[in-house]
Amino acid sequence: MTTSTRHETTAGAAIPLVAAPEPTSRPRRRRSADIGEPRGIPWVYAVLIGGLVLLVGPFLWMLLGSFRPNRELKEVPPAWLPEHPTLDNYRTLFTELDFPTFFLNSVVVAVAITVGNLIFCSMLGYALAKLHFPGKRMIFGLVLGTLMVPGVVTFVPLFVLVSNLGMVNTFPGLIFPFLAGPFGVFLMRQFFQSLPDELIHAARVDGAGEFRIFWSIMLPLCRPALATLGILTFLASWNNFLWPLVVAQSEEKYTLPVALAIYAIGENNSDYGLLMAGSVAIIVPVLIVFLVLQKHFVRGIAMTGIK
Amino acid sequence: MATVAATSTAGRSSRRRPDRGRRREVLAGYLFSLPFLALFLVFTIGPVLASFLMSFTDLRSADVRSPLAVGFIGIDNYTKLFSDESFRKAAFNTAYFVVIGVPLTMMLALAVAVALDTGITRFRAFFRVGYYLPVVTSIVAVAVVWRFLLQPDSGLVNTLLGYVGIDGPSWLRSTTWAMPSLIAMSAWRNMGSLVIIFLAGLQVVPKEMHEAAAIDGAGAWARFRHITLPMLRPTLLFGGVVTMIGYLQFFEEPFVMTRGGPLDSTLSTAYYTYNQFGFGNYSYAAAMAYVLFVVIALVTALQFKWLGSKE
Questions:
Q1: Which of A34, A173, A258, B184 could form a disulfide with A254 if both were Cys (CB 3.0 to 4.6 A apart)?
Q2: Which of A64, A160, A188, A217 is the best residue to mutate to test the B interface, defined by the most B CB atoms within 10 Å of its own CB?
Q3: Could you give the CA distance from residue A98 to residue A104 in angstroms, rounded to a whole number?
């Protein structure tokens, strides 16, 4: 127990340093140089670049592969650059397969889940951090206790429940089980705790109601935490697989990963170009969002360690 | 006399006002908690408990509409489970994946984190983003790409091996190589989040300790072992637990890349649970999932005890 509390503070304290490591790095470097200790800087760079090539290589392979006609993809040995670049794979994706539907389904489900979590988690997080009421500790314990419960434990009874609610193969069936996640409560509670109580006291003296204090005063101060939670929730939902695979039973409700997996193991399993193009379609939007908003990802990971 | 009366009324009224405020605050607390808790009880707590109860029944897909009218069969599902050859195979495979995969991922991530923290001075943010890149991508999509990379003839991996004179195997169709391939892919994809966590942990290691040790003549490796590693213990523990919990549930990788084969050599516990669910054996699947859940809880508790108290 002591370990976990210690860890929370460790990770919490590290956030500003992680967000801005550059200023601290230079003086430190100079100091170690003063000690006269040689550092293998050039080879460390070389190794890190080598590692990066290994990490980025598969994505490049995927991107280039998506523009190659199928017969080129089966060539031995394979070439990096397409000899006859083509958009056929993408054309098939959009015309013969119902790709726009899968894309839209993924967006609808991810947006709904993200909005739900932002609202419900910030409300409960605020109550747990700033309001005093009996049972509060028990609620927090309950939420925290399920933080580590894997999806594989709950999906069977969840499916029975969703069937009886008539929500199999519907958007509510895809969305409801993920609307209130414990991770968001944890994150928002941590953030609300860092805001001063005086703001609330002052607003109460001025006669503001409890909801107004939350909505107009406290919530706007939480923008960084909301951004982090929003991005991580959207990403988790976009990449989620097991539950959509179970609930979405016909093509018109498939999300992107479900559609791709089913094509990849079905009769299209050797249509390499098509599958590469499908992978690009799932990965590239997320990569763009990630590169634009990467500081929120880093903060979220450092704060909670959850992917 | 008058002053005493005045202070006592003032005291009473100021006590009364917070009382009213307190009641309003308590009410607000419950109202703010209500929406989350309602959803949470129905869709999380309920299923966690139901999964446990369900594992003692003979619920099958045909009983979906009347889940309360099923027969109670005690621990039959659990006894059946441990004599089920495929389940034992799946449990072994999951252990294999975790025992090799978690340390591998952690060591790679730690090496990168230390290199980023102390080995370089420029482009640190660039590298951090680069190494984190695969983490944000869909496992399904990545698994599809890796399936092509690992193709025996037209795949990139064997082509590169061919340049150095190695005749690469048919990775995903070999009972020997299929699992190492999945492990390599998982280490590749998940390393990045551990790099970020470890980098955060490394910021807490005091530089003065390193300097003092260096003056006393301690080499880089000695300082890493005796200063960095002990200071990093809570972070390593946390990273280890999070990675292990994820790895214990691996599912997408074999689903897309090998379909659990060849000869069940990449069938994982989560995958077998899903298969049994697909066959309609709901209560059997629930029992299996619960075994996995208990293992996850035990391993987490053990890891906290083992790594956490060794101060």
A1: A258
A2: A160
A3: 10
Our CA-based measurement puts residue A99 at a distance from the nearest CA of chain B, in whole angstroms, of 15
How far is CA B234 from each of CA A5, A235, B199, B239, B241, rounded to the nearest angstrom? 10, 27, 13, 9, 11
Is the pLDDT at A18 greater than 70, yes or no?
Answer: no
C-beta separation of B137 from A287 below 8 A: yes
Predicted confidence (pLDDT) per residue in A194-221, tens digit: 888 988 989 988 888 889 999 998 999 9
Q: Mark yes or no for CB contact A78/B159 under 8 Å.
A: yes
b/e sequence A201-218, b meaning 16+ C-beta within 10 Å: eebbeeebebeebbeeeb
Q: What's the whole-model pTM score?
A: 0.81
CB of B61 within 8 Å of a chain A CB? The answer is: no
The answer, for A23 touching chain B at a CB cutoff of 8 Å, is no
What phi and psi, each to the nearest 5 degrees, are found at residue A37?
A: -95, 120
Pick among 2.40.170.20, 3.40.50.11540, 2.40.50.140, 1.10.3720.10: CATH of B79-308: 1.10.3720.10
CA angle B80, B82, B88 (to 5 degrees): 125
Q: B273: part of which helix (H) or strand (E)?
A: helix B269-278
* CATH 1.10.3720.10, chain A: domain bounds: 99-304
Please state the length of chain B. 311
A99-304 CATH, one of 3.55.50.30, 3.40.1190.20, 3.40.50.2000, 1.10.3720.10 = 1.10.3720.10
Dig out the tokens for B16 from the structure.
């009364």
Q: Does B127 touch chain A (CB under 8 A)?
A: yes
Closest by CA to B94, choosing from B241, B251, B303, is: B251
ipTM of the complex: 0.81
Beta carbons of B110 and B198 less than 8 angstroms apart:
yes
User: How far is Cα A74 from Cα A272, in angstroms, rounded to an integer?
Assistant: 8
Given CB atoms, is B310 within the 8 Å cutoff of chain A? no
Burial class (CB in 10 A: 0-12, 13-18, 19+), A50: exposed
> Is pLDDT at A71 greater than 80 in this prediction?
no
Chain A residues whose CB is inside 8 A of the B304 CB are 3-4
R_g (Cα) of chain B, nearest Å = 27
Q: What is the DSSP track for B164-215?
A: TT-----GGG-TTTHHHHHHHHHHHHHHHHHHHHHHHHHTTS-HHHHHHHHH
